[in-house]
Design a protein that fits this description.
4 helices, 3-stranded mixed beta sheet, single chain, two-stranded antiparallel sheet
């Protein structure tokens, strides 16, 4: 084997290994589009939609979470969800606990996951000027 041919082989092999280790990253600013988290997609299209930028920024901030044996009464007091006010009505008391881990999830995705798990309805409560002041959670 000539040295020139060997370098071509090494270059091609290196390129193949390099490309095979790459993966496409998700869009951190999901804007309500489906996002891969773990092994499933959490579709947040239309969920807690608002044109109030500070709330959108808060909802779309990414976190790592590890919840085990959470109840509906406890979940909204946990980090990273506990920074905002929730008005809760008729939360389920005797249902399957919420167990969920993710290394990269937004608050909006997490609230959607919680909503789907316990079949809760979530909407925004607004003041007289239209600014969101809380999230209404109904069981």
């Amino acid at each position: 084997m000539k040295y020139g041919g060997g370098w071509h082989f090494i270059g091609i092999a290196g390129l193949c290994f390099g490309l095979s280790s790459c993966h496409l990253g998700g869009n951190k600013n999901n804007g309500g589009f489906p996002t891969m988290t773990g092994d499933e997609t959490i579709n947040t299209v239309g969920f807690l939609e608002t044109d109030f930028d500070p709330l959108n920024k808060w909802l779309d901030e990414v976190f790592e979470v590890n919840y085990k044996h959470m109840t509906a009464e406890l979940i909204f007091d946990q980090v990273p969800l506990n920074d905002i006010f929730y008005q809760t009505n008729s939360l389920p008391t005797t249902v399957t606990p919420f167990n969920f881990s993710s290394s990269e999830i937004t608050r909006r995705q997490l609230l959607k996951k919680i909503s789907d798990h316990w079949k809760l309805k979530m909407s925004l409560i607004r003041d007289s000027t239209g600014i969101p002041t809380a999230i209404l959670v109904t069981g």
